[in-house]
Structure formats: C-alpha cells, structure tokens
Amino acid sequence: MNNSGGRPPARFLLAVVDAGGTVPPALSLAAELVRGGHQVRVLADPTIEASARRCGCTFSPWREAPHFTSVSEQTAMIAAFESGNPLRAFQAARRFAGKAMTGRYARDVISTVRQSPIDAILADGLPGILIGAQATSRPTAALVAQTYVRPTPGLPLLGTGWSPGTGILRKTRDRVAPRLAAMLLAPTLPRLNAVVEDYELLPLDNVFELYDRCVRVLVMTSPSFDFKAPQLPDNVRYVGPQLDDPDWAVETPWQRRGSEPLVLVAMSSIYQDQTDLLQRIAYALDRLPVRAILTTGRAVDPAQIQAGANVDVLPAAPHGQILREASVVVTHAGHGTVLKSLAAGVPLVCLPMGRDQRDNTVRVLRLGAGVRLSKKATPSQIAGAISEILQRPRYKAAAEEFANVLAWEAKHRPRAADEAEALVQ
Fold first, then answer.
1. 232 and 281 share a domain?
2. Is 398 part of any domain?
3. Phi, psi dihedral angles at 265 (to 5 degrees)
4. Would 121 be classed as within a structural domain?
5. What total number of domains does the chain contain?
6. How far apart are the first and last CA of the chain?
7. Is residue 234 situated within a structural domain?
8. Phi and psi (nearest 5°) for 314?
9. Structural domain boundaries enclosing 213
C-alpha cells in the first residue's frame, strides 16, 4: 500500500480502547498507513500512548470516557469483571456501560475531530465510539480484530465455540440463536438511542445497525479461517490478519538455546487469571525433551512461574522470530497468537480460557492444525498433547498447508490499509 497518484496525504483518526489483543492489529494498521505517507492520530487509553508514538502516530487520550492509565488498573478492572461475583462484575461494567458512558466516548471522538483535521475514522466497535464517529459525518470503518462478531443466521454465535450445524437440530440452533442474542441485546437500545438522538442521528432498530452505518466493516482475519456466512452486509470486508508483534514484545532480546524441538508458550497479554495455567504448562515442559520460551504477558510477573532449566520464562518475546524455529505453540488461543502461528506453519495446543478463544480453537481443529485441552488440564495431559503434536506430522502438515493459504490471500486480497485509504479516495 502506498499513497500514489499525487493525492495529498489523508488524515486518519484511530479510536480504540485497550482491550489487549485488539490493540496490536489496530496499531499495525496505523503504522502501515504512516509508512504510506498518511497521518494518523490515535485516540485511546494512556496505556497505548508509547506504542502509538513508536508507530509514528500522534496521540490523544480519552478524557471524558473511561480509560486505563496503567496495566495494573486494567488488571484490577478485568479481575473484577470476570471474578464470578455478580456485584463486582456489575460495578466494573457500570464504568463502561449505560447512556452516560456511551455519551462520553462519543463526545471524546467528536471533540478530537473538532480539534484535529480528520478525513476518515477507524473505530473500535464500541457503540459510543461508532456513534461519535458517525456524528462527525466523516467516513468511518469499524475494526473487528477477530472473527466476524455479528450474530448471523447460519453462523455459530461468538463465544460459544460451536461449529456450524450439520444436522437439523444444529442448523435450527444456528438460525434461532442470533434472534435470541438480538432479544438479549434489545434492552440496551433505549440507552443507545438516547445518545444517538443527542446528535440528531436516526434511531437504531438494533445494536449492530451501527455497523451498517459505517462505510466499511473491516474483519481483520482470513476469510478461510473464519466460517463462511450465508450472507454478509455489503460493507463487510475480510482484510486478513495483522501479524506484526507489538512493540513491547519486539524489544525483548531472544536467542535460541540447544537443538531440541522448540516450544513457544503464548498466553494472554492481559489479565485472564492465567498464572496457575502457566505454572501447569511449565511443569509439563519440564517433563519433555524440548526447549521452551514461556511468555507471561504484561499482567503476570515471570518470577511467579517456577520452571525447569529447559524453559526460559519472559514477560514478552518477539513471537514472529521465535515462530520461524518453533515446533509447537501452547496457547490460550487468542486470535492474534493463533493466526501468527498458522502463518508460520506451526501447529497448536489450544487451552481456551474464555472470550473468543473457544471460537478460534474450533477453527484450528477444523483445519487439523492442532489439539484442544481444557484450561484445567493437568501437567501430564499438557505434556501428552505437546508430544502428540511433535510425534504426528499431520498437524504440522495441516498448519503449513494453511500457511500457504494465508500467504496467497496476503498477496492477492485487499489489505486493511487499502480499504482505509479507499475511505478518502
């Protein structure tokens, strides 16, 4: 992608929240636009500022909208939200939900556009951000940094870990479940419409109509990885995964030790109560004739993990470099880790912990490029799964076959930056 044809550089606003794995793909897109000669202002949590500036972007923090100023603050909020305690979860959710919070995101987007010349907006899918973007009348693309999220008849619901139904009962499930999801989301409509009406926009009939009002919805994954939808809105584009490592991971020095098969352990970069699972994985690796790099992410102190001499425990590492030599990836099955591994032709042991991870895992299984374990798996079970991958060539063959698919798509299909640039052409 390059800004050819004598057009002046475009001025983009990238408006995102620090939700962990959704940030690196968005910043990777921003960096590509900057390399193409465009200007990008990032509106985000202060935790993202340093990374945004390293990409060559200017930065504005959320001011009225709720935001994180540190990783520890982010960890505390996620821990409360996912604690299983309804009161704590409700208190955490109040910070990001309701008319007041939606309106604050919208106002921050609008005020940023008023203060900085902006030609087009690249927006996280949070309703307040999309409402604010649409209120500015700037062409907007919604970013979906995972598989397609919209409840769609004929597709499994996000978060279920289902495969598309093949029998009558499961096909009926896939037709009915999106309607049930719409019913569950319906109570949020009055709050959203109260904000929409503040900006004299037409009222919404459903929450996902905010996507329909965008010029583009950019699904940042491979169409061959995702399940094929019976029908998609005309503005939806699959633009492939963004495979760059985050800047804070690339900075960590790494050098391979030994000649044994190399195992990369790549779990969530943000809090997901993963310390115990990381420890069980470390115990499993200690039983095997392998070398391993175990990355804890920013929410876990590496000192909390006891590991054998064959395991290097690091807060982060350049996964892109390691994957060139890795034989297996052990992961929670976050979208970014899964696609980077598959692009490198490396099979996976998936231990989904929540969020969209079961959805990613079932797609890995469909490709034949990995195995699935419970997040409660014992060290013995984890060691067995790693051995299974190492001893059976079919897993690597399947991963390498899909790596070829991803390489072909990257060469022949429009990229996210191409679609972003088209917003202002």
1. no
2. no
3. -105, 115
4. yes
5. 2
6. 14
7. yes
8. -130, 150
9. 11-240+412-422
Q: Are residues 202 and 294 in the same domain?
A: no
Tens digit of each residue's pLDDT, the chain (425 residues): 555 445 679 999 999 998 888 899 999 999 999 999 999 999 999 999 999 999 999 999 999 998 888 877 777 777 766 655 555 554 555 555 556 788 999 999 999 999 999 999 999 999 999 999 999 999 999 999 999 999 998 888 888 899 988 889 988 988 898 888 888 888 888 989 999 999 989 999 988 999 999 999 999 999 999 999 888 999 999 999 999 988 877 777 777 888 899 999 998 877 778 899 999 999 999 999 999 999 998 888 899 999 999 999 998 889 999 999 999 999 999 999 999 999 999 999 999 998 899 999 999 999 999 999 999 999 999 999 999 999 999 999 999 999 999 999 999 999 999 999 999 97
Q: Are residues 235 and 251 in the same domain?
A: no
Whether residues 262 and 189 fall in one domain: no
CATH number of the domain at 139, please.
3.40.50.2000
Residue 5: inside a domain, yes or no?
no
pTM metric for this prediction: 0.91
